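User: Is it possible to get a 3D structure for a protein together with its bound compound? The compound here is S-adenosylmethionine. I've pasted both below.
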Amino acid sequence: MSGAATGSTWLDEWNRGQDTYVSDRHRDRHFGEVAESIIRLLPARPARVLDYGPGEALFADRVAEASGEVILCEAADSIRARLTARFDGHPKVSVIGPVGLAALAPGSIDLMVVHSVVQYLTPEELDNLLLDAHRLLADDGRLVVGDLVPPQVGLVSDTVDLLRFALRGGFLVDTVRALVRIAVSPYARLRRQHGLRRLTEHEMAAHARRAGLTGQRLRPNLGNNQTRWAFVARRTGTPTGTADSPG
Ligand SMILES: C[S@@+](CC[C@H](N)C(=O)[O-])C[C@H]1O[C@@H](n2cnc3c(N)ncnc32)[C@H](O)[C@@H]1O
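Assistant: Yes, that's possible. Here is the predicted structure of the complex:
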């Protein structure tokens, strides 16, 4: 799954640059819907939001306006460089890499969002991310993990969902024209090569429990793809171990 056998990981591939959008309009609609979803999750008071694996996060400034503060934590150096340039000097948006997480104060995050990232993580990376969430979440803070891929969802299902989104979003013609290009794109090849991590609610809840979090399915999913699913969790206990240890 991680690509260890092939010598590269999904993170290497994101760092190299994956263009998964059929047009600028598609990209805008995607990031616009993700930002709106995050805004709907905000508590009714100023909140510190951590968006882990934000990608281009085109509208993080809208989330920052609504919440008070957004921290974008991006592991891919190339994407992080673009985010840093985009939000340079913004008073409410900051950009860090994974090492920057260690510098954040324990209990200082009100909402941590991880959207469309977990499918690229190894089980160990997911466990470590959940441990970070456990350390960073405030007592009443929430972790929201979006776009989890259920076992039965594959490239065909994602393509049907893209067509529905395109019809709604006004970029159907671009999408139909791009279908062949998508099928033979580097991203599609990488999906076949590396695979995506698929998780049931039971499996995700078990990962969370090991990190001292309690969670369940959240409806609807963030963003446009409702064949994928979302999970919400809070800190409730102490971490008990990793996938290889009992608990
Ligand atoms: C599909 S993009 C999601 C971006 C954004 N959250 C969104 O919804 O559009 C995948 C994100 O996962 C990140 N990612 C992929 N593999 C990762 C890994 N092993 N560790 C941390 N982040 C990773 C990429 O850098 C990228 O930001």
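The chain has a mean pLDDT of 91. The chain has one domain: 20-175+196-235.
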